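Hi W.,

Here's what went into the run:
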Amino acid sequence: MSQPDTPLVEVRGLRKHFGDHEVLRSIDLTVRRGEVVTVIGPSGSGKTTLLRALNGLETPDGGEIVFDGGPDLDFAHPIGNEHRYALRNRSAMVFQAYNLFPNKTVLQNITEGPVRVKGVPRARAIAEADALLDRVGLLEKRDAYPYQLSGGQQQRVGIVRALALAPDLLLFDEPTSALDPELVGDVLKVMKELAEEGWTMVVVTHELSFARQVADEVVFIDGGVVVERGHPSKIFTAPAEPRTAQFLDRLLRPLE
Amino acid sequence: MTVDWELFLSSFWPILVGGITGTIPLTIISFTVGLFIALGIALMRLSNIRVLKAIGWFYVSVIRGTPLLVQLFFIFYALPNMGVLLDPWPSAVLAFSLNVGGYAAEVIRAAILSVPRGQWEAGYTIGYSNTQTLWRVILPQAARVAVPPLSNTFISLVKDTSLASIVLVTELFRVARQIATFTSEFVLIYLEAALIYWLICLALGAAQGVLEKRLSRYVAA
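Here's what came out:
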């Protein structure tokens, strides 16, 4: 492993458009090992697109994504599937809508990647999956199908599925947005524990309490650019940019 | 009119054997081959490559826009003039497979599209290739959607195989025709043939129910 302070991934000048709409206009982002970066911003600001680009689910039009140890991608040139696989070899995504495989049991959802892609022996993959499920309090659900679980349980399985791939970078795309309010806490608690354990995470979220308590850095994106970034204590109490202040205000006092 | 029960019983077995050795294997083989053709055509129509899309569209259009009997006659009677001489059985299998391929392609295409985009992405994020995601995630879920309409195609095929009797394939209806011609008992023998087709289709309907239930085991009731 490299120095703890070397960036795990650096994003430089990332650009992406859908039709006429420029979703990302030159985004820079640096994530160090063990760091939790929270990305906030209005819907349509490009934050999800940025996250998906890190997992090879979107192909940027320009800019670079450089992981320490590879891949080192410059999107000025067309990239192939092998580059997308390389990105996914380093990162794993937790989706807003969980996206568990409904035709597979909880255990199969988790072991599929390690066994079929990473070549982990099945017995070991199952043992590791069981240990992870036990951690998030879902061991007794290992043979259930996703439809038999609540949203909060499905999302915890989604997190375990990502963890089981042993990625260097965990990506969370609004992981609690689809959940009933009373189920949000269970998921955030798991994420907080992962942060404390030293996992490197990029979290797109509207959960400001999570950002405030857990994040090492908050990045505010609006209109496809990084408007402001900094430690949560600074961003949330004394934002430098008016747009940041305005966004936070709307989030905290929606009725006024 | 009196019913010649003796003839009914003595002809039942030969006609049924025609079904078991002709109709059923012809249906199963053609349908299986046809499904692979259909999957290929469906994937072509879903691909981003314009030429493949166009070929897939053209194929479906031709198969659905021309009579099955014409397709069968073309393969059996016209291809020999172009230097391709096929025996009755391979001719029939080829015609029916190509035909199923055209119809089932649209079913499979729609079924694949019915699986949410997020399932592809979940496959990708765990490191699956396109092909792995297709076979391990998308198609199992698409199958649940595709089984009822594909069962229609299958049951139609059981009956359509009677056309093979015209290109000299010994199957249920050809046996019935031979007996009918020999005995001149057209009403009795053709009703009997219809009855046996119906029994086969009833059995298939029951099998469809079992399959649908099995494929829905992971879906909330």
